[in-house]
Amino acid sequence: MTAVTTSAVERPRGKAGRKPFYKDMSVQVFAGMAAGALIGWLWPQSADFMRTLGDLFIRLIAMFVGLIIFCAVVHGIATVREAKKVGRVAIRALIYFEVVTTFALVIGLFMINVLGPGRGMNLDLHSISGAGLDPYLATAHKITANGFLLGIVPHTAVSAFTEGNVLQVVFTSVLFAFGLLALGRRADPMIEMIDITKRTVFKIIGYVMWLAPIGAMGAIGFTVGKFGIASLVSLGAMVVEFYLTCLLFIVCVLWPIARFSGISLWKLARYIRTELLIVIGTSSSESVFPQLVEKLQRAGCDEAIVGLVLPTGYAFNHDGTCLYFAAASVFLAQAVGIDLSIWQQLGLLGILLVTSKGGAGVAGSAIVVLVSTLAATGTVPVAAVGIILGVHRLMSSAFVAVNILGNALATLVVCRWENALDQAALTRALDGETMEPVTESAAA
Fold first, then answer.
1. What integer pLDDT is reported at residue 319 of this predicted model?
2. Pick from 105, 108, 154, 164: which is nearest to 355 by CA?
3. 190 vs 175: CA distance, rounded Å
4. Transmembrane ranges (predicted)?
5. How many structural domains does the chain have?
6. Is 330 a domain residue?
7. Is residue 12 part of a domain?
8. Which residues have CB under 8 Å from 405's CB, separation 6+?
9. 3-state DSSP call for residue 343?
10. Domain hosting residue 258, numbered range
11. 10: helix, coil or strand?
């Protein structure tokens, strides 16, 4: 007897079924961001409450991220039923991640040296309060080779999920998936249950996403209330330089990769515009992981490839964050009057290639990795990080968005390499044709 597939057949919805613009989630999120900016400007004293709204939305999504990663990885590997293919995809993805993040670090160093926003500041370190660094200094010791290796393996099978450590969840999921592979057909009921669990969680995430405009409003309201409306208009030389660096990376690295792979980067960004707006508002990549999984599958990506590449990308492919590391570290040297030679900067780049991977799964990893890297090189005082704490959130909005765009593109590219990309579905998705599920009976 032929097993009935659980995946729904999809067909494009015609123009007559197009939703009014105000029902588009990206429009609603943008409206929420605008309302948040207005509230933060008019009532800055509401910053703490607005932050609570933003954090609440992130928590609602984040509590399912571990489960989604587990289901996506396990179901993807178990349905492939070929360990050799799993290893090939993982190796290709990791090589891709390493090459692209290296380009990110190089571009980050190039732009900060050319524009030099920190030159002439000559800040006195004694005037900088280091109290805000204490939480980051306390966890910076984790970013070591030994700490990284030990951090891959959770203390218990459950702690990876309770602590929200993406790298540990991926590791646990891979082990569980290979266990199911070893069972053969006897594992089919478990695989079916995992697939049903994943679909159930996607439904729940769909309900939570109705709160996305409120979450974005709260996050932006907090930023404006804390830093003032000028934070959205005149962000300072460092923030402007970093935004330009992100744009240069997208144009010079991501766009050629997309073009060579036959993918329109502009259409891809438009396709995931809601997710990009959410991460710009919340500065949290976890807040859109479930939606990315679903959207990439709808765009023709093989479920197994998405389940392998996207969670791994969340752990290892931090394009935007690497731009931030390179720019911020040299900026701090410029700000305190330290002239780093080209060899010192190349040494810094080499250390960042390692520490950027070691930060996977560490809460607040961007600042933590930066602190640990400066401590490892000894060329820039760690206390100097206090200079950028005030604008870190403004920059994180940019680098998290670059991370999301880079990981979405990486998943599509690996699918293309593996001949596991439905070009017709990709074209429909990127051209904006809404897809609606069709039941098996209706399809028949």
1. 87
2. 105
3. 15
4. 21-44, 56-77, 89-112, 166-183, 204-223, 229-257, 322-343, 363-389
5. 1
6. yes
7. no
8. 250, 254, 265, 268, 269, 272, 276
9. helix
10. 21-433
11. strand
Q: What is the pTM of this model?
A: 0.71
Tokens of 188: 């089919």
Distance CA 137, CA 127 (A): 19
Distance CA(404)–CA(320), nearest Å, equals 9
Q: Is residue 441 part of a domain?
A: no
Tell me the residue type at 162: T
Nearest to 180 by CA among 41, 63, 75, 313: 75
pLDDT at 389: 67
- In this prediction, residue 216 carries a pLDDT of 79
- In DSSP terms, 10 is beta-bridged to 437
Residue 438 lies in a domain: no
Residue 308: which CATH number?
1.10.3860.10
- Indicate the pairing of strand 435-438 with strand 9-12: antiparallel
Q: Which of 364, 65, 58 shows the shortest CA–CA distance to 218?
A: 58
Measured CA to CA, the distance from residue 272 to residue 258 in angstroms comes to 15
Q: What is the pLDDT of residue 402?
A: 93
**CB neighbours (10 Å) of residue 368?**
23
Spatial neighbors of 61 by CB under 8 A, at least 6 apart, are 205, 208, 286, 287, 288, 289, 290
Q: Which segments in the chain show pLDDT lower than 70? A: 1-19, 21-24, 80-83, 121-149, 164, 166, 223, 227-236, 354-365, 368, 372, 375-378, 386, 389-391, 434-444
Tokens of 93: 């993805």
Query: 170, 312 in Cβ contact below 8 A?
Result: yes
- Cα 51 to Cα 222: distance, rounded to the nearest angstrom: 5
Q: Looking at residue 11, what DSSP letter applies?
A: E
Cα–Cα distance between 117 and 239 in angstroms, integer? 9
Question: What are 346's two structure tokens?
Answer: 């190349």
